[in-house]
Design a protein that fits this description.
Elements lengths: L1 E5 L1 E2 L1 H15 L5 E5 L11 H9 L4 E3 L20 E2 L12 E6 L2 E9 L6 H4 L5 H14 L4 E7 L3 H10 L6 E5 L9 E2 L5 E3 L4 E2 L10 H10 L15 E7 L6 E8 L1
Length: about 260
């Protein structure tokens, strides 16, 4: 079975590139996970972006810290059946894990937020991700889940790597999101778990993590706050493709995509 995981979708150009890439690839993969937390002009996700991403062929959409930017969505997240909010977030309602049966197998997906660098407002409303994940995995296994994928949306590289080793014999894949910079450390551990520290970004190539470069440079040079504007130029496509042995359910290949 082959899975495609797409890094953080940023803005209109990211959505447009996602459409093109999934159209090309959807017949060659069995399951698609997309992080959509920056799809609404670089800040959050609305129902319209959720529906758009799903229409392109995604099976699950994961989120992250930017869901707070769309306050009008606080009561809407739980109404979007294939959208996951971080499972260790305590002050928002929504789907915190999901099991989808497809092609005769059950795939469990969970989204977690890291404990560091997310800002005081978020961090004071977070449970420890290392503690939260165990009960979810147990629930997945009780329900006969064949594959388990963990989107760890975190700032600290060390925290992501530690989570990978923490779960190396419990899940099928731990992949990091949030930094928008793809890491070159994709690997398969001895247990058969696939891992990458950050999948990267599907969004405007000529930008600073999606932000217009002129604004980013001004912020750093002057220290002045400037209103966020999402860049609109042609997007890069960052993703990973992972193939598993159908019998052992262990990863046999992981391919990083940076186009």
């Amino acid at each position: 079975m082959k899975f495609l995981i797409v890094g953080d979708i940023v803005g209109r150009s990211g959505l447009d590139r996602l459409k093109v890439e999934l159209e090309k690839r959807k017949d060659n993969v069995d399951f698609i996970i997309v992080n959509g937390e920056n799809s609404a002009s670089g800040k959050g996700l609305r129902t319209k972006e959720y529906e758009e991403i799903m229409s392109y062929g995604a099976d699950v959409i994961t989120m992250g810290n930017h869901m707070y930017y769309r306050k009008e969505m606080a009561s809407e997240y739980s109404k979007l059946p294939r959208l996951l909010i971080p499972a260790n977030l305590t002050n928002l309602d929504g789907n915190k894990s999901i099991i989808i049966e497809k092609n005769g197998v059950k795939v469990g997906v969970v989204n977690l937020l890291g404990s560091f660098g997310m800002g005081d407002m978020i961090e004071k409303n977070l449970d420890n991700p290392f503690e939260v994940i165990d009960s979810i995995i147990n629930s997945f296994k009780e329900q006969g889940t064949d594959y388990i994928f963990v989107d760890f949306h975190a700032e600290a590289t060390a925290e992501k790597i530690a989570m990978g080793y923490n779960l190396e014999d419990k899940v099928s894949c731990v992949f990091g999101t949030h930094t928008h910079v793809q890491t070159a450390d994709e690997k398969i551990l001895d247990t058969g778990m696939a891992y990458i520290t950050d999948v990267g970004m599907t969004g405007p190539a000529e930008s600073v993590l999606g932000l217009k470069k002129e604004i980013a440079v001004h912020r750093f040079k002057t220290g002045e706050w400037t209103h966020y504007e999402c860049s609109t130029n042609k997007a890069i496509f960052n993703a990973v493709e992972i193939e598993y042995d159908d019998n052992t359910k262990k990863a046999i290949s992981i391919k990083r995509i940076n186009e």
